[in-house]
């Protein structure tokens, strides 16, 4: 059954609470965890601007007892969370670039694509994913509502600057023909009316066309306490169980899946119309390893307790450092840093500044909800603060050696899953 009441905040300029499961419509929703009130993660005001009134929204997770979907308890108008100047470009992270190159190789080999095949990417950002398919010789089309789409068009990757929906899907089909592959990398959790989006995807697909989605995966999120990936852009946190349930409501069959490293643990899921592709054993294997029902309820209760403890542990570590007079900086300002900073209660009194690599659109602004300035990374090496917290802690292995090689002599801290010095 589809939800009777979709939490549709689009066009309200505000937010709408989730009152029934956004996939199966059940009202049996249990509270998992509340992170308090949070500013939108991209609400970054220029350094030095006089503080003004800003919106904050409740941020809590719900678990559906009927389909096991974990979802955010509130939908915020996309105009607020995806402003046109949305300062995020996927091309800047090596891990993501490598993953998208690998996605192209895997799917092209598995599906036997040819040069006539059309690949459509929803939420195509700066075209990083599609550039791999374009280099592979396929026809490509991106759909990206924010100004980042201009970067893709500038690189020669055709991109429609529109919000995706069934109308856009029909238009694409008329103009370009049906798609052999539709990809949605990490935007599939972002869209309010997920049923309308899957309808629109099915509308664009060829008879044996394949929908490839990449989403944050709930299981590693729980295992490594990634509560910092909870923010208003992410409306849903899928397990394979809950994602498969959603796709089956649209007669799509999951035929292959595998874990990928993006964003600290994601899943790539291949789906197509029933019977169009042979179902691989990867699906059964992953499903059987996931907790469901009461086991999931118990798992989520443990997660909640561990998240609260991790906050206290990080604060206690920082208190000790501050009592010794240490100066502390932050490394990188991904969206997830906003959740961590606001949930733990870090501010400009604790963190002097946060560094981003040159070229980042976040430099010159403040961390959301605080007056912690975001500055060019070179400051870290000239200033040499005593410690630096790596907010992109899920790629600390990639970042730490680089920071040391560039000359940072202070101590590096990863805040999660257990706060520690590297
Ligand atoms: Zn449900």
Secondary structure blueprint with pairings:
Elements: E1 15-17, E2 29-38, E3 57-64, E4 70-72, E5 74-76, H1 78-81, H2 94-111, E6 118-122, H3 128-135, E7 139-143, H4 148-154, E8 159-160, H5 166-176, E9 179-185, H6 194-204, E10 205-216, H7 218-223, E11 236-237, H8 240-248, E12 252-260, E13 266-273, H9 281-288, H10 293-323, E14 328-331, H11 335-344, E15 354-356, E16 374-376, H12 378-383, E17 387-390, H13 396-405, E18 411-414, E19 420-421
Parallel strand pairs: 6-7, 6-9, 7-8, 9-10, 14-15, 14-17, 15-16, 17-18
Antiparallel strand pairs: 1-5, 2-3, 3-4, 4-11, 10-13, 12-13, 18-19
Write structural notes for this entry:
By secondary structure, the protein is α/β, with parallel strands linked by helices. 33% of the residues lie in helices and 23% in strands. It contains 13 helices and 19 strands. The chain has helices at residues 78-81, 94-111, 128-135, 148-154, 166-176, 194-204, 218-223, 240-248, 281-288, 293-323, 335-344, 378-383, 396-405; strands spanning 15-17, 29-38, 57-64, 70-72, 74-76, 118-122, 139-143, 159-160, 179-185, 205-216, 236-237, 252-260, 266-273, 328-331, 354-356, 374-376, 387-390, 411-414, 420-421. The strands form four sheets. It has a seven-stranded mixed sheet, sandwiched between helices. Helix 6 links the parallel strand 9 and strand 10 (205-216). Zinc ion is lined by residues 21, 23-24, 26, 64, 66-67, 69.
Structure in a nutshell:
The chain has about 425 residues and is an alpha/beta fold. It has helices at about 80, 95-110, 130-135, 150-155, 165-175, 195-205, 220-225, 240-250, 280-290, 295-325, 335-345, 380-385, 395-405, and strands spanning about 15, 30-40, 55-65, 70, 75, 120, 140-145, 160, 180-185, 205-215, 235, 250-260, 265-275, 330, 355, 375, 385-390, 410-415, 420.
């Amino acid at each position: 059954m589809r939800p009777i009441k979709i939490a549709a905040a689009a066009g309200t300029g505000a937010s709408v609470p989730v009152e029934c499961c956004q996939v199966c419509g059940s009202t049996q929703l249990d509270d998992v965890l509340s992170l308090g009130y949070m500013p939108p993660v991209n609400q970054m005001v220029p350094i030095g601007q006089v503080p003004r009134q800003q919106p904050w929204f409740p941020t809590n997770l719900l678990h559906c007892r009927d389909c096991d979907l974990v979802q955010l308890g509130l939908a915020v108008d996309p105009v607020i969370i995806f402003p046109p100047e949305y300062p995020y470009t996927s091309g800047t992270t090596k891990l993501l670039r490598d993953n998208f190159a690998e996605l192209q190789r895997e799917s092209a080999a598995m599906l036997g694509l040819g040069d006539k095949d059309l690949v459509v990417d929803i939420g195509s950002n700066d075209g990083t994913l599609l550039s791999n398919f374009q280099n592979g010789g396929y026809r490509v089309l991106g759909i990206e509502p924010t100004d980042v789409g201009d970067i893709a068009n500038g690189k020669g990757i055709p991109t429609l600057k529109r919000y995706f929906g069934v109308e856009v899907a029909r238009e694409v089909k008329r103009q370009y023909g049906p798609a052999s592959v539709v990809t949605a990398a990490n935007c599939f959790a972002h869209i309010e009316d997920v049923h309308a989006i899957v309808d629109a995807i099915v509308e664009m697909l060829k008879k044996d066309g394949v929908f490839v989605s990449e989403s944050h995966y709930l299981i590693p999120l729980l295992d490594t306490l990634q509560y910092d990936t909870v923010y208003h852009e992410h409306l849903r946190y899928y397990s394979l169980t809950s994602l498969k349930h959603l796709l089956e409501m649209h007669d799509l069959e999951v035929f292959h899946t595998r874990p990928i490293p993006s964003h600290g643990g994601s899943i790539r899921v291949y789906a197509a119309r029933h019977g169009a592709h042979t179902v691989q054993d990867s699906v059964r294997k992953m499903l059987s390893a996931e907790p469901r029902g009461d086991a999931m309820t118990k798992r989520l209760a443990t997660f909640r307790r561990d998240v609260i403890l991790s906050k206290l542990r990080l604060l206690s570590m920082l208190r000790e450092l501050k009592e010794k007079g240490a100066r502390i900086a932050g490394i990188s300002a991904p969206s997830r840093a906003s959740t961590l900073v606001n949930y733990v209660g870090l501010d400009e009194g604790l963190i002097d500044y946060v560094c981003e690599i040159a070229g980042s659109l976040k430099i010159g602004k403040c961390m959301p909800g605080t007056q912690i300035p975001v500055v060019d990374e070179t400051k870290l090496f000239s200033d040499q603060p005593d410690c630096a917290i790596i907010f992109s802690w899920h790629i600390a292995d990639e970042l730490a050696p680089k920071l040391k090689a560039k000359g940072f002599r202070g101590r590096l801290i990863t805040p999660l899953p257990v706060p520690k010095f590297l």
